[in-house]
Design a protein that fits this description.
By secondary structure, the chain is α+β, with helices and mostly antiparallel strands. The chain has 14 helices and 19 strands. It has a 6-stranded antiparallel sheet with strand order 3-2-1-6-5-4. A hairpin with a 5-residue loop joins strand 10 and strand 11. The longest helix has 48 residues, at 307-354. Residues 332-534 form the Histidine kinase domain.
């Protein structure tokens, strides 16, 4: 009996040695780069040989609902094809039940097991009488698959058999987890590489010596593989400037500062010289990388192209400087024009005092009135365009012009000037000047001709937008114009100087002037309607 036990123990030791050798070989080949199927095949062959049986490994599919066939030793292809896709669940035969419960399932006689009933014909055909299935579990307890032993005669495993199966199953779990981890790492690496390559900025990782450990395509266009602050040749292609115009030293480059622990964000602007000699503006940001102990292990740098933005800003600054110079010139001209009006006003005023002939005096007084009106228009136009030389708000301009006309020409006890203009309508200064002269002429014309010596009345100026056009309406409630008045007449036909000026300004605006009698308050009145394009 002792001899029998010694023989059995010796056989167990030899089995353990062979299984450990198989385990060691499988692990070494996996580390050497062998595929998962190759190293798992080593384990099932060892299991089949040492247990005098056939063996297979099944793997849980991605959905976790079925088992797909992995590798086998001694099983015919017809059988593996038939059981590929075993359902995982409480009513499944050995493999599917073991994967479902996470516990070992031993079926000593498959012919007597109700869960195997759908497969009895298959098991008889291939000589399968017993099936032991052990779940392959990950470190966290997740079931990865099942290690299954098949016997040709009904039998139960002994303690040594179970130890052998457990060793092989544990090794298979290590190999499967390692394979999954590696595939996940490769997948993450591929995703990261894809993301980096498609980023619209250059990205690079450098070690503490300034050597590139990873970069993307755009960064490879910017650098030769070294951190500019750590490479004499590379540094010559990067120029940055302080606010006073002095160049930035290499020791103050973002990469050098990041290696000292500084986070350089949003970055520093550099003029970068490409390999073909062209220069582009870029913005460089950098941050330190630290290991698990907090020590700086490298630098990540990001380069973005800001050339269009930078040159646009430079162009805008130059344009603003030019606009300011033009504005100063235009305002100086406006001052000179107003001074000229004042000088002319004084000269005409002196001339009026010396004229005794009634007709001549009337003509001089008319000229004097025109000079006053044009001076008012020029002053209001200058004030309205003080902050924006190109455009102004038409309503504000007309309101101020109305205030000036009221103060200079209107007796408040006799006549009222009403300005009704929609705000928020921008108008070029040139258009506003012409419109202001037209309003001035029409208002003065109404004050002079619309009302009798003792009549009171109202002159209304309305301005509005009509689609793509602008409409100016000047209406009075006076006696109205005589027939034919206000129309364009040939030179020398007696048309007044005022209407000649108005029609000329209307043509300048590309507009159309209509005149009618609105019949307000029992008096015909007069309405001038000017429509012109915006």
């Amino acid at each position: 009996m002792d001899d029998h036990r010694a023989e059995r123990d010796g056989g167990g030791a030899r089995r353990s040695e062979r299984l450990l050798l198989a385990q060691k070989t499988a692990l070494e080949r996996a580390i050497g780069g062998a595929g998962l199927d190759e190293v798992l095949a080593l384990l099932v062959r060892a299991g089949a040989e040492q247990l005098g049986a056939r063996a297979a490994i099944f793997l849980v599919n991605e959905g976790g609902l079925t088992l797909r066939f992995g590798v086998a030793a001694g099983l015919p292809d017809a059988y593996t094809r038939a059981v590929d896709g075993f359902e995982i669940g409480p009513q499944a035969p050995s493999c599917g039940l073991a994967a479902h419960t996470g516990e070992r399932v031993v079926v000593e006689n498959v012919a007597l097991d109700p869960r195997w009933a759908p497969y009895h014909a298959l098991t008889r055909e291939h000589g399968i009488a017993a099936c032991w299935s052990t779940p392959i579990r990950a470190v966290n307890g997740t079931v990865l698959g099942a290690f299954t032993i098949y016997h040709a005669t009904p039998c139960a495993p002994g303690p040594l058999d179970l130890e052998s199966v457990d060793l092989l199953t544990h090794t298979a779990a290590l190999l499967i987890e390692r394979d999954r981890t590696e595939r996940e790492r490769q997948s993450s690496e591929a995703l990261l590489s894809s993301v980096l390559e498609h980023l619209p900025v250059g990205v690079a990782v450098y070690d503490t010596q300034g050597r590139t450990t990873r970069n993307n395509r755009l960064m490879r266009d910017y650098t030769n593989g070294s951190l500019p602050s750590a490479d004499d040749q590379e540094a010559q292609r990067w120029r940055a400037f302080h606010s006073d115009g002095c160049p930035v030293e290499r020791s103050a480059f973002p990469g050098a500062r990041a290696l000292k622990g500084e986070i350089v964000v949003p970055g520093m602007d550099f003029l970068h010289r490409a390999a073909d000699g062209t220069e582009h503006w870029t913005r460089v940001s950098a941050a330190p990388l630290r290991d698990g102990d907090g020590r700086i292990s490298g630098v990540v740098a990001v380069v973005s192209d800001i050339d269009a933005e930078k040159r646009a800003a430079q162009g805008l600054a130059a344009a603003l400087d030019e606009a300011r110079r033009s504005e100063l010139v235009a305002h100086e001209m406006s001052h000179r024009i107003m001074n000229s009006f004042q000088l002319l006003h004084g000269l005409v005023s002196m001339q009026t005092a010396t004229v005794t002939d009634p007709a001549a005096r009337k003509a001089v007084e008319q000229a004097f009135s025109r000079i006053q009106a044009m001076a008012l228009v020029q002053r209001r136009l200058f004030e309205a365009t003080r902050n924006d030389l190109a455009t102004l708000d038409a309503a504000d301009y007309l309101q101020r012009l109305g205030e000036s006309l009221t103060g200079a020409f209107i007796d408040s006890g006799r006549c009222t000037l009403v300005i009704d203009a929609a705000h928020g309508i921008p108008m070029p200064a040139a258009q506003a000047s012409s419109m202001g002269l037209i309003v001035t002429e029409m208002v003065l014309n109404a004050l002079k001709h619309a009302f009798g010596a003792h009549q009171q009345g109202t002159v209304t100026v309305r301005f509005e937008a009509c689609g793509d056009n602008r409409r100016l309406t000047v209406t009075d409630d006076g006696d109205g114009l005589p027939d034919g008045a206000g129309t364009m007449k040939p030179a020398g036909s007696g048309q007044g100087m005022g209407m000649t000026l108005v029609h000329g300004l209307v043509r300048q605006l590309g507009g159309k002037l209509e005149i009618d009698r609105p019949n307000q308050g029992g008096r015909p009145g007069t309405r001038f309607v000017l429509t012109f394009p915006a």
